[in-house]
């Protein structure tokens, strides 16, 4: 999630009814009544590993992680890809990704009883074929520890140095992690973090002995904010041609967008961020939607469930989280520290990554914040020799088990996916499509495979 809309989302009132015993259905788990001896997690829902990765041993600042090993790996574990997930915000916890989106167990209401929270297995989990690591990034987010507010990153370079420290210490936890291909993934404001750490790894690797390098294999960004100056200028046309605002409102919104663009060009970073927030508030006000994250929703995403779940001391204990931390979905301290970073572009980092690695940009179709048009507009402006061929590449109809799932456009190392039936939180809305997408992209199967003769002949037929 991006942080600034939290105040727009009316909090769901969650009432807990604690049950003293676990329910009978084996896959559903009730929260225990208190800090009694019962565990909130049965063994099968526990992460393979979790705890803290130091980013600065002298101050004690550390990144909290949960790691889930692949459930059905198709190669030996030492060759099985590792996915790393980073949440957006700035300052929102990756535990939302873990327990509400793509992790193997998601928090939900217990359907049969009134409304205690339960963990339910997610058949669309991203750790079916791959290892999956969630990092609470930057420090100060979720269960991560910032020893002082001054140590919280204020720019993407510092974010990347902290992530690099955490990732390398994670790899050292197990000798079999050393050579596994690593894919950095994330959503929303991670459209900044993912390129930042990917770029940092590639630059750093150039100075390291092969045995010291991080084995980066690709980066994937869902509904990302990456090149804000281009993206902020797309809301008005997108909403207008979607029939959500009229022509007069379009003009008003465009005026607000130009202000954000102008302030960004003059590097007035703080005011530029405020101006972007104004654009989004204006769009929210004009449309009266439940959430800009998905214009089809009647109510906002109820990711608050994760907060209620993770504030339980028993849950913190089994996850190895510091029990004195009161879990928040998004940290204001981190949001404030990165306020001046919001409108700064990392497009040049994606241009570097697409030349040296592979890049996936995917968007849920219903998102009005960082959606399809917003992404395609900045991609067209990339300084990359392949961009012309990418723009001309066919947009293929993507089906899963004969049902329409979305569209895929790929050329060379760049892939773009439109996920139908999804808003900003793609894995929450379309878990099986999101799983098929990430698996096929990593393994270069299906529409993510290499160009086949079939493609050439169908282009040729089109020309005839
Ligand atoms: C930033 O923009 C605001 C609003 O337009 C203006 O008042 C302020 O002087 C600008 N600051 C700088 C450093 O240019
Ligand atoms: C939009 O803003 C106006 C003026 O502040 C307010 O009266 C109106 O209720 C708002 N509409 C919505 C849908 O939030
Ligand atoms: C937990 O966090 C608190 C406050 O940040 C800190 O003082 C304490 O040392 C931490 N405890 C452990 C076990 O790390
Ligand atoms: C673009 O595609 C054409 C046709 O496949 C190819 O000849 C050309 O080398 C490509 N351009 C770049 C910059 O890769």
Automatic annotation (TrEMBL):
Entry annotated with the keyword Transferase: no
Span of the signal peptide: 1-30
Coiled coil: none
PROSITE patterns listed in its UniProt record: CARBOXYPEPT_SER_HIS, CARBOXYPEPT_SER_SER
Cellular component per GO, a single term: extracellular region
Signal is among the record's keywords: yes
GO biological process: proteolysis
Compartments where found: Secreted
EC number of this enzyme: 3.4.16.-
InterPro entries for the chain: AB_hydrolase_fold (IPR029058), Peptidase_S10 (IPR001563), Ser_caboxypep_his_AS (IPR033124), Ser_caboxypep_ser_AS (IPR018202)
A Pfam family of this chain: Peptidase_S10
Similarity comment: family membership: Belongs to the peptidase S10 family.
PANTHER family for this protein: SERINE CARBOXYPEPTIDASE-LIKE 50, SERINE PROTEASE FAMILY S10 SERINE CARBOXYPEPTIDASE
Name of the protein this chain belongs to: Carboxypeptidase
Record lineage: Eukaryota, Viridiplantae, Streptophyta, Embryophyta, Tracheophyta
């Amino acid at each position: 999630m991006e942080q600034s809309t939290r105040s727009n989302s009316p909090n769901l009132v969650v009432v807990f009814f604690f049950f003293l015993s676990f329910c009978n259905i084996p896959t559903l788990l009730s929260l225990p009544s208190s800090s009694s001896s019962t565990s909130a997690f049965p063994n099968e829902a526990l992460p393979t590993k979790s705890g803290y990765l130091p980013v600065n041993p002298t101050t004690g600042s550390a990144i909290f992680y949960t790691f889930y090993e692949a459930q059905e790996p198709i190669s030996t574990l030492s060759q099985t890809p590792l996915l790393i997930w980073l949440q957006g915000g700035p300052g929102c916890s990756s535990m939302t990704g873990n327990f509400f989106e793509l992790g193997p167990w998601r928090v939900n209401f217990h359907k049969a009883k009134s409304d205690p929270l339960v963990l339910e297995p997610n058949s669309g989990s991203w750790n079916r074929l791959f290892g999956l690591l969630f990092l609470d990034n930057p420090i100060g987010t979720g269960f991560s520890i910032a020893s002082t507010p001054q140590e919280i990153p204020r720019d993407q370079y510092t974010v990347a140095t902290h992530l690099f420290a955490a990732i390398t210490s994670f790899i050292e936890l197990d000798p079999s992690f050393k050579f596994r291909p690593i894919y950095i993934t994330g959503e929303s404001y991670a459209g900044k973090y993912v390129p930042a750490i990917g770029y940092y790894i590639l630059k750093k690797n150039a100075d390291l002995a092969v045995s010291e390098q991080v084995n980066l294999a690709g980066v994937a960004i869902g509904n990302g904010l990456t090149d804000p100056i281009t993206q902020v200028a797309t809301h008005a046309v997108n909403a207008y041609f979607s029939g959500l605002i009229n022509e007069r409102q379009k003009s008003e919104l465009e005026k607000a967008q130009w202000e954000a663009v102008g302030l960004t060009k003059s590097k007035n970073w703080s005011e530029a961020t405020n101006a972007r927030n104004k654009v989004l508030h204006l769009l929210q006000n004009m449309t009266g939607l439940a959430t800009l994250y998905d214009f089809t929703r009647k109510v906002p995403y109820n990711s608050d469930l994760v907060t209620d779940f993770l504030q339980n001391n028993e849950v913190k204990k089994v996850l190895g989280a510091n029990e004195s931390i009161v879990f928040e979905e998004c940290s204001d301290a981190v949001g404030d520290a990165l306020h001046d970073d919001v409108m700064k572009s990392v497009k040049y980092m994606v241009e570097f990554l697409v030349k040296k690695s592979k890049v996936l940009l995917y968007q849920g179709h219903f998102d009005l914040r960082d959606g399809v048009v917003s992404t395609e507009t900045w991609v067209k402006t990339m300084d990359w020799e392949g961009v012309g061929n990418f723009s001309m590449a066919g947009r293929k109809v993507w089906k899963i088990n004969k049902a329409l799932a979305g569209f895929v456009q790929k050329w060379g190392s760049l892939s773009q996916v439109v996920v139908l039936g999804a808003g900003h939180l793609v894995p929450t809305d379309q878990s099986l499509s999101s799983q098929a997408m990430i698996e096929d992209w990593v393994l270069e199967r299906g529409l993510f495979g290499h160009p086949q003769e079939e493609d050439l002949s169908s282009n040729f037929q089109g020309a005839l």
